[in-house]
Design goal:
Helix content: 25-40%
Number of helices: 9
Oligomer: single chain
Largest sheet: 9 strands, mixed
Radius of gyration: 21 Å
Low-confidence stretches: 1-32
Length: 266
């Protein structure tokens, strides 16, 4: 059944979103549970693959089932250039390869319910082994996110859903930039934004992962050029034309500023 959450807008992407932005692709969906996999018995798998050492098999699984780009979920179905059908060969292969699919890839979610539902819709045992995720958080949705990130419930919380998480990227789309004020004043005070600090506070003692928050602001061309010149040592402009500051600490999170300059600021 298609998630009712899949219709939410994902149109606020920045170039920082997950380091490289995928083109509306979703992770390959393996059989929901190993019991649904048809194939040879656990004790004797006739595939020549199992004549290879486990180390070589793992290298094959990694080649077939991992991507350098993050996967958006939910989204239009795509195999992202991978080969998820490999998981349906047998139960033995599923047990060996499924942990690589989940643990070695990066997943992106734009709503807390998506992150929660993903773990429970997929094979929960393996989905809980995810180590690297990206969250796209709009400031207008902050209360939804902080309720999830700061929760301690065993059925709906970041810690319970993703207990093995090691890297958490959050791309926080802020609308706090005052386009009528001095851009230098905006730049000096962006880290004081209450919603940004609330987001960081909600993560305290809620995950063992390294947390990196990118506070994304869209600014007009005049502000962008003024700041790029005045703060040339503090802002690095990437090949896509966006400017990024260094990371610094807010609570337990590492936070950086990203400035983008679309043709029009809305």
């Amino acid at each position: 059944m298609e998630s009712v959450l899949s219709t939410r807008s994902m149109s606020y992407l920045s170039t920082a979103d997950a380091l490289t932005t995928p083109s509306q692709e979703t992770p390959p969906v393996p059989p929901l549970h190993m019991d649904g996999v048809k194939g040879a018995s656990d004790h004797h798998d006739p595939s020549p693959l199992f004549r290879l050492p486990r180390e070589l098999r793992d290298r094959i699984y990694t080649y077939a089932l991992t991507s350098t780009q993050p996967f958006i979920w939910p989204c239009e179905h795509s195999n992202h250039g991978l080969n998820p059908a490999l998981l349906a060969v047998s139960k033995t292969l599923y047990r060996e390869a499924a942990p690589i699919l989940y643990a070695a890839n990066k997943f992106m979610f734009s709503h807390p319910s998506d992150a929660n539902m993903f773990v429970h819709i997929m094979d929960e045992h393996y989905a809980s082994t995810i180590t690297n995720i990206c969250l796209r958080v709009r400031d207008r949705d902050l209360r939804l996110w902080t309720a999830y990130l700061g929760s301690t419930t065993p059925y709906r919380s970041l810690r319970a859903d993703l207990p093995r998480l090691r890297m958490l990227w959050i791309f926080f789309r802020s609308t706090a930039w005052n386009h009528l004020s001095d851009p230098a004043e905006n730049f000096r005070n962006w880290q004081l934004e209450p919603k940004l600090r609330d987001l960081c506070m909600s993560l305290e003692d809620r995950t063992d992962a390294e947390v990196r928050v990118i506070c994304c602001h869209r600014v007009n061309r005049a502000h962008f050029e003024q700041l790029r010149q005045e703060y040339a040592k503090e802002l690095v402009v990437d090949p896509e034309g966006d400017a990024r500051s260094a990371f610094f600490k807010i609570r337990e999170a590492n936070v950086a500023l990203e400035l983008s300059c679309p043709e029009q600021v809305t």
